[in-house]
Amino acid sequence: MWPILAFLGLAITDAMNPFTVAAMAVLLALDRPVARGAIFASVTFIFYLGFAIALAEGLTAVMARWLPLLPAWMPGLLLAILALLSIGFAAYFWLERSAADASVRLAKEMSLPGTAVFAAFSTISDAPTALPLFAAVAQLPLLTEARIGQYLWLTLYSAIYVAPLLLLLALRIMLASHMEGALNSVLAAVNWSFRHLLPPTLAIAGAAAGWFAAQSLRTLY
User: Which pTM was predicted?
Assistant: First the structure.
């Protein structure tokens, strides 16, 4: 019983991902909200389940085997590139205040296929940081030794992960225009975040990546 409760608790914790929920809220504030919401939730479920299955099949073991074969300077180089990109985008969003408005306009102009691509990209980029998912995969042998059974548990986990998205979509369908004010407030909050929170966050991340890059490359010489 305890492994099941732990597994479900991890899934519920993972489902409280503020970035995924905020992205869904933004999409539901645009035109064709039901289609956008359904596409976003479906693609998120498919890609998150795929990543979970890849973990169960030994993705981390494969990475642990191949990463040591990379050149010693590769981590430092990647960190340096990350630092430059982060600081560059921080400067862009700080100096070009219209970039925040452009980000919202870009979301509004995104086609339905573009929504699917956005969902896939956001899920793939976010999945490696999903610590509850890694812990849940480690729990699978305690739940069942059968591979099909483990896949079913991961399917349940992924369904719980997208449950808040489906809840938002259901509320949008049932309440319709009554939710427009709240969703427009979400758009305004996202716009404000791009203006005031994103530049310093990127700058701090870039500075940290640059420091780690310097430390990594200095040890080679």
Answer: 0.70
